[in-house]
Amino acid sequence: MNILWLQSGGCGGCTLSWLGSEHGSLFRVLADEGLELLWHPSVSEVGVDEARELIVQCADGRTEVDVLCIEGSLLRGPRGSGGFHRFGGGARPMIDWVRQIAGRARHVVAVGSCSAWGGITAAGMNPTDACGLQYDGEASGGLLGPEFRDATGLPVINIAGCPPHPDWITETLAMLARGTLLPAQLDELGRPRFYADQLVHHGCPRNEYYEFKASAEKHSDQGCLMEHLGCGGTQAHADCNQRLWNGEGSCLRGGYACIRCTDPGFEEPGHAFETTPKVAGIPLGLPADMPKAWFIALAALSKSATPARVRENATADHQLRAPSVKRNKK
User: What is the reported pLDDT for 24?
Assistant: First the structure.
């Protein structure tokens, strides 16, 4: 199964993440799964002239494309012409190439939140009229339209994340190569369920602090970041704290609050990323599936039962009090 990878309006961070896989040589991993890169703007040896000819062949059907991967948002401006981004300095806009090849490819994959929803490039005034392949922010549509389906009946597969974990990309491509990625394996936003059916909250190293609502007050504190510092890990769909980056890291393990980068609209939350908006002291972004009344009752009970060790350590940058040692009674 071959892959044509095109990069549109983005920073290249999704490719950088993919190349950082801990499973060894990317080309060996792809070969083991029966995958071959036709062309990739960062890792292929051929120059732009040869790449342009290959893309022409892919567009007119002379070269078959099994998987079209798009990294970066699609730039429709100015005024729908796509003139802000012309591939390789040519006359034809990138969005025209993408539309034509997507209509012939067996599968279409959005790599990263920019190509999935529009992402960072679509934030603010969005002068380039950036959008995703099948979403424009939270609204379905995007460049290809809400009704787009590939030859097997799948919509655009959105490997959302800013950037995605390298395994999310490789495992999705491997599932396509094996023919095991069916519509039921995608959630309602087209994200692969093997990672999107989890929450960043699952496996978070600060979960004890969350349970007792022992909150951090500044960025160096060890406590839960949800109440005051903007963490959306209880709502974010990803397995970042179970499938660690480079075997040991995640945003929360690095001391950073989760900004829900796998969700549409994450780039414009309506407030500073490091703050938690509240009404009457209650955070607006409550954990997924939890009614507000339950959260209020649970928070009140949890705070009243917080052990002194947890309370003291939550607002410190290192452990002040260790867990007590309890002996089993015979």
Answer: 79
State mean pLDDT over 298-321. 89
pTM listed for this prediction: 0.93
Residue after which a domain boundary falls, among 194, 227, 261: 194
Token representation of residue 240: 């970042």
Of 280, 14, 324, the closest CA to residue 165 belongs to: 14
Determine the pLDDT at residue 200: 96
* DSSP string over 181-210: --GGGB-TTS-BHHHHTSBTTTT-TTHHHH
The pLDDT, as a whole number, for residue 69 is 98
- CATH code: domain of residue 125: 3.40.50.700
The span from the CA of 272 to the CA of 275, in Å, is: 6
- Look at the chain and report how many structural domains it folds into: 2
Q: Is 131 helix (H, G, I), strand (E, B) or coil?
A: strand
Q: Examine the fold and report which residue of 161, 194, 227 is the final residue of a domain before the chain moves on.
A: 194
- Residue 140 forms part of a structural domain: yes
150 and 295 co-located in one domain: no
Burial of 244 (C-beta count, 10 Å sphere; 0-12/13-18/19+)? middle
